[in-house]
Design brief:
two-stranded antiparallel ribbon, 137 residues, 45% strand, mainly beta
Length: 137
């Protein structure tokens, strides 16, 4: 049996109805990044945003989300501008937005969430290690 991973960006119609979500992690110094399309699995029709495409819509903790709808998929772009540059090593912030997504039968709030993370710096050599002297008699 072959298992196919479910992408991070998905809209799916299941027993509970339509659900849509996107979750991604990007580096703190990333430029504007296309996060990818929200793909549909079992949707009743092509995906759309009933409120129209987003244009630099602010996330809950900063950053800007932009969407475009084409060929039944919703592409999402994220700009971290507005989150600030004061990230300490290992620090991260998660920002989100919840636009409505529809498949022709129902409309639900999508969960679009991006975590911006600053990685830890690699260790640096402080200098040569001096010769060791055996102090035992």
């Amino acid at each position: 049996m072959r298992l196919t991973p479910i992408p991070a960006f998905v809209a799916r119609r299941g027993p509970g109805g339509l659900t849509a979500s996107l979750s991604a992690t990007i580096p703190h110094d990333a430029a504007v990044a296309a996060l990818g399309p929200i793909r549909a699995f079992g949707a009743a029709g092509p995906l759309s945003l009933p409120g129209g495409d987003l244009s630099a819509a602010p996330g809950s903790a900063g950053g800007r989300f932009t969407t475009s709808t084409a060929a039944g998929a919703i592409s999402v772009t994220f700009d971290r501008n507005g989150l600030g540059d004061g990230f300490a090593e290992g620090e991260s912030v998660t920002t989100a937005i919840g636009p409505a997504v529809a498949d022709g039968v129902s409309s639900v709030p999508a969960r679009l969430r991006v975590t911006v993370r600053r990685a830890y710096a690699p260790p640096q050599l402080l200098g040569p290690i001096p010769d060791q002297v055996d102090l035992l008699p």
